Amino acid sequence: MAHGGGRGRLAAATAAFTSNARNPALRRAQLSFLGAWTAEWAFTVGLGIVAYRDGGATAVGLVGLLRMVPSAVLTPLLSPLADRGRRERVLVLVSAVRGAATAAAAVVVGVGGPPQIVYALAVVSTVAATLFRPAHSALLPSLCHTGYELASANVVRGFLDSVATLAGPLLAAVLLQFSGVTVVFAVSAGASLWAAALLLGLRYDAPPRPSASTEIHLVREAVDGVRAVAGNRDLALIVGLAAAQTFTKGALTVLTVVVAIDLLGTGEPGVGTLTAAIGAGAVLGSLAASLLVGTRRLGAWFALGVVLWGLPVTLVGVVPQEAAALVLLACVGVGNALIDVGGFTLLARSAPDDVLARVFGVLESLVALAMGVGAIGAALLVEQIGVRPALVAVGLLCPLAAAASWRRLRRMDRSLGVRDRDIGLLRAVPMLSVLPLPAVEQLARRLEPLTVPAGDVVFEQGDTGDRYYLIESGRADVIGDGHAVAALGRGEGFGEIALLRSVRRTATVRAASELRLQVLSSDHFLPVVLGYTPSAREAETGVDTMLGRYSPEDEQPPGISR
């Protein structure tokens, strides 16, 4: 049994990658992410070197804060743009801006210009970078059809994030060894522009949007995202833990420089090597995380990922040796992979699609602020208490936060398990099976349970139709004009024809045994089913088939419109 289970998990992990490779839209989106984040990590290493040459560890921390504060302010204000239209267009724009800013930084360094100009360009690049992830995170669910597929997409993206975390710093280390910061920035610019080019012409069924107002109220729309997070304890918890993790991440942008140059004596290339160790661990962790695609314990694994972002940092301070530091920072990378598959999947499935980019914008804003505070906080700690005590202090934050959040995360796991069951019930209906995940999640949240005793009528022929029904268990008979016309069981739905055709019920539905139903009101059912072309087409075809099946040619159908 264990062997078979292991083979099943391995097959599921393989399927996670192959499903993304077979889906052209997902493939383009994922490769774009790889290019964008490889550029970001390589640029971060190069910028750290520029700042350290300019003013030591304090300058590295100040530059880290300078980069992140504008992003923290602007990202939630700009993220509503990704909820107003097609999200890939936002990704193309921000990637192009990043490429241009990074290329300009390369020119400034190449001609020996003032580092302050490089810092200003870094702010522009970072604002664009922090807007990339919320738009990309909000785009992914629209390219998926099930929670499993979304988890797979986040596993693949986590793997590519890990590859970028390894490739970007490692590439920077090699380029620094043989050339200089100018080439590092130039390569980063090329990767950003490649990320933009991949998303041109992306094709998928975009969610229906309300008619765009001629007036743009970005502040008001941004506040809606803040309210969505503040009003949902699950969202607030995930965002809070992510902020703790990224505080540590920001601190590491300073600590890796100081540890490599001052504590371990490995020089400037050692900065890239230590950062690449995080990437190496993340790659291995992502491969392991792919085995978790089908698990219902994403909250628990997310908590473990948060722990691994802190505990190894503390141990680096306890055991300040190069080999130990490389292994421990690799463990941080493993934690990063677990956070990607757990945190982003939980967040995407807990927030409504119409504010999803704004919710991710709030996340990225706090992430940017936490990174900036972490960077300057680590610099101050190093100055005040030294490198080793600073490592110990910074590393304790995440394990303590994860321990305090454990029970809530486990409750989230149980809640998503129930919703997955409801989604499976919805997916059994042909017209609902073609919906993208955000749409079917929206329906699942709106389901209301109803029990009908055996022999009772659900509704009568001629009644006004205002609800759609799904059978969770039991059997139902459909009676039209006094004649039995159909028998329905688990996984089948009824009541849609009256809603779709705006007519009265054309049949009676009676419980042949006790019926456990899940019910959707017409206000929730119709906008989703008719809002997507594939589901609207499937619904119309299904209605015509059902009416024709029980109607003699050229006669008024008795109806199973139900």
UniProtKB/TrEMBL annotation:
Keywords: Cell membrane, Membrane, Transmembrane, Transmembrane helix, Transport
Membrane topology: Multi-pass membrane protein
GO molecular function, a single term: transmembrane transporter activity
CDD domains attached to this UniProt entry: CAP_ED (cd00038), MFS_MefA_like (cd06173)
PROSITE patterns per record: CNMP_BINDING_2, CNMP_BINDING_3
Keyword Membrane applies: yes
Keyword Protein biosynthesis attributed: no
Gene3D superfamilies: Jelly Rolls (2.60.120.10), MFS general substrate transporter like domains (1.20.1250.20)
Cellular component terms per the entry's GO annotation: plasma membrane
Compartments reported by the entry: Cell inner membrane
Domain Cyclic nucleotide-binding: 431-529
Transmembrane feature ranges: 31-52, 58-78, 90-111, 117-135, 155-176, 182-202, 235-261, 273-293, 300-319, 325-347, 359-381, 387-406
Pfam families assigned to the protein according to its UniProt record, in alphabetical order: cNMP_binding (PF00027), MFS_1 (PF07690)
Name of the protein: Major Facilitator Superfamily protein
